[in-house]
Structures are given as structure tokens and as C-alpha cells.
Amino acid sequence: LAGTDVATNSRTKQMRPCSMCQRLILNAQIALVVMRDVDGNLVYSDPLTWEDDLPERIAKELGNEK
């Protein structure tokens, strides 16, 4: 995964898939996700180690934070 900030055309600092992509990755049983950090280095992540904060993240993205 690699993201670009539309406003600045620079690499994003937040290297984490959105809620929908995270769910797709987990449902597809992908064992390893490779992401690119701001310096261009590859970072490897095991999706099974991701915190299960999906409901909170969805609420935040929808603007319904508690």
C-alpha cells in the first residue's frame, strides 16, 4: 500500500488501510501487507496483528465520534 496526499502531492504519513480496505484484506486472508513509508522504505505488516478498532474507526470516518 502507498498513499499520496492530494493537497500536497506528497506521500502520506499514515500508513494504514481505510476501514473498507482493512476488512477486504482480512476477509481475503492476506498474510502480509507491504506498505511504503514517507522515506520510500518498505514496511511489512501482518494483518492479524492489527488492532480490532474497526467500529471506532468507522464512527470517526463518518464523523460520529463518541
Explain what you see.
The protein has 66 residues and is of the alpha+beta class. It has one domain. Helix content is 26%, strand content 18%. Strands 1-2 form a two-stranded antiparallel sheet. The radius of gyration is 13 Å and the shape is flat. The relative contact order is 0.18. The mean pLDDT is 82.
Question: What features would you highlight for this structure?
Answer:
alpha+beta; two-stranded antiparallel ribbon; 2 helices; 4 strands; 18% strand
Mean pLDDT comes to 82
What helical percentage do the residues reach?
25-40%
What is the H/E string?
EEHEEH
- Uncertain regions spanning at least 5 consecutive residues: none
